[in-house]
Amino acid sequence: MRRLVALFGAASLVMLAFLAYPFISLLLSVEAEPLRSTFALSEVREALLLTLALATLAVLILIFIGVPLAYILARFEFRGKGLVEGLVDLPFVIPHAVVGVMLLVAYGPRTPIGGVLRSLGLVVENSPWAIVAVFVFVGAPLLIDTVRDGFSAIDPYLEGVARCLGAGPFRTFLTVSLPLASRSLATGVVLAWARAVSEVGALLIIAYYPKTINVLIVEWFNTYGLAYATSLTLTLLPISVGLFLLLRWALGWGR
Amino acid sequence: MKARPVAVLIIMAIASSLAAYYTHLRMTVSEQQLVIFCAGSLYTPLKEVASIFEDRYEGVDVILEPSGSVMAVRKVVELERRCDVLAVADYRLIEELVMQRYANWCVAFASNEVVLAYLDHSKYADQINSDNWLEILLRPDVSYGLANPNDDPCGYRAVIVLSLASMYYEKPEALDELVVKASNIYVEEEGGRRHIYVPAALEVKSQRLVVRSKSVDLIALLEAGVLDYVFEYRSVATQHGLRFVKLPPELNLGDPGYSDFYTRAMVHIMHGTSRERKLEGSPIVYGVTIPSTAENKEEAAEFIKLLLSDVGREVFKELGHPFLKEPLFIGERPGWLRA
User: Fold this and answer.
1) What is the pLDDT of residue A255?
2) ipTM of the complex
3) Which chain A residues are Cβ-neighbours of B7 within 8 angstroms?
4) A36: which residues sit within 8 A by CB, 6+ positions away?
5) How far is A173 from chain B (nearest CA, A)?
6) Phi, psi of B286 (to 5 degrees)
7) Which of A20, A51, B49, B72 could hold B37 in an S-S bridge, CB 3.0 to 4.6 Å?
8) CB-based contacts of B183: which residues, under 8 Å, 6+ apart?
9) Closest by alpha carbon to B206, among B137, B126, B125?
C-alpha cells in the first residue's frame, strides 16, 4: 500500500506541476500597467458579464432539453440508440471554426430555418442568440454524457420502490432520480459552462459581436500584443474559479 | 453528500434572471449597425475612423470584425455573411474573388511596407540598421520568424523581400541560407525572375527559423524572447510598439515606383495542390468595397467617404499606416465617389 501511495503520489505531483506551472508563469508574466487599464475598461466588464450570462443561459437551456435526453439514454433501450449517442458526442470532434460555419449554414439568417427564426426575432448571426447557439452546441455532449452516467449509476430498484409507494413517474424522477444524480448534474453543469466560457473559434466565425471575453482576448492579442491579452485572461480566472467553488458548495460536493 | 436545495435554487434563480436581463438588454439595442469586415492590420486605424464616424452620425453603431484578409473575403463570398463594408490588405483579393458576384467596384486607398521588427532583447539589437540587416540575419545565433506564406500575405511578402534582397545586395547565398536550407521551400531561376515554390505542407528544417500561421502570432514569440527578428508590416510594428528596421524602398514593397523590380520575384503558394496560386511581387495596396449583401449601403458609403477624406488620411498617418497619394478606382465607380 505504501508503495502505491508513493508511486501514485509521485505521478500526481508531476501531473499537478504540469497543470499549475503555465498558470504560475501567466501570473508572473502579467505587467502592472495593462492590468490596471484592463479592469478600468467598460468594454472588458461588458464582455465578461455577457460571456458569463450567456454561458449560464446556455446551461439552463441544456438542463431543460439535455437532462431529459440523458435520462432516456440511461433508462431505455431502443433501436438506433447507438446512433443517438454518437450524435450527442459528435460536437466533441468537430473543429471549433467548423462549428461556427455549420451553425451559420444551418440557422443563419439567410437559410430556410434561419428565416423562420428571424421572423421570431432570433437572428443567429452577430447576436447573443448566435452565441447561445454555439454554447449549447459545444456544451451538449459534456452535460448529456455526464448526467446520463449519473442516471445509469442509480439502482432502478430505488425508483421502483418510490413507484410502489405511490409516487407518479414525474414525482419519482424529481424526488428520487434527480437528487441521486445531483453530483453528476453538478459536474455536467460545471463542465458545460466551462466549455462554453472557453469557446472562441466558432464565435470568431458566427458571432464576433457582441464581443465575448475570449473574442476580446484574441482581438487584444492581435492588436496590442501578449501583455494585454494575458492581463485580460487573468480577469476571467478568479471569476470562473469562484463560480465553480460556489456551485460545488451548493451541491454539497466533497463532503 | 446532501445538496443544499435552497442554495441551488437561489443560485439558479439569480443566474437565470441575470442571464435573461442581460440578454434582453443586448437584444433591445435598436441602433443601426454598420458591420465592417476588415484585415487585422486595418483594425486599429479603422477603429479610430469608426469612433469619429459614430460621433458624426448619431444612432449608427459601427461593428468592426477583424480577421485575415482571405478569411474576411471568404466570410462574404462563401459563408454569405452580411457586411456593409469590406476592407482588406490586398485589393486584388476583392478584384479576383469578390467582384465576380458580390461587388462591381473597389477602391485602393492605403499602402504599407514590410519591415524587420525586433525588441531591445533581440540579439545585435544595438547594431542592426537598414544596411546590415541581412548580414545580421545570416549570423548563426540569430533566430527569425516568418508567417506561413500559404496562410498570410505577410508571409509570402516576407519571402519576396528576402528574395529581392539577395538580388539587391548581390548575395545569392542569403535566400538559400535563410529560406531554402531552412525549409522545404525551393527556388528556380527563369528568365531573370525568381520563382519560389512553397509546398502546401510547409516544413521547417532549421532551429533558427520559426513559422507561424499569422504574422501577429510571431509578435508574441518576439515578446516572449523566443525570436530575435520577425517580418511584419510597418503599421503593425508601430501599433505594437516594436522597434523596426526600415528596409530600402526597392525591397519593402511599399513604393509603387519600384513595381517593376518587385515583379522579379514570385511565389507559388500551396505548391503541389490544385489550389496552387502564383503571386507576383507587387506593392502592398489595401482595398475597400461595399458588397452587394450590405444592408446599410448609405451609411457604408458615408463611412468610405470619411475614410478617404483627410480625416481618414490623418488617422492612418498618426498610426504609422501609409496612405496612397491618390485613391485608385477599379471597376464601375459609384456616383457618390465621383465628387
Assistant:
1) 45
2) 0.76
3) 249-250
4) none
5) 16
6) -85, 145
7) B72
8) B202, B203, B204, B205, B206, B209, B211
9) B137
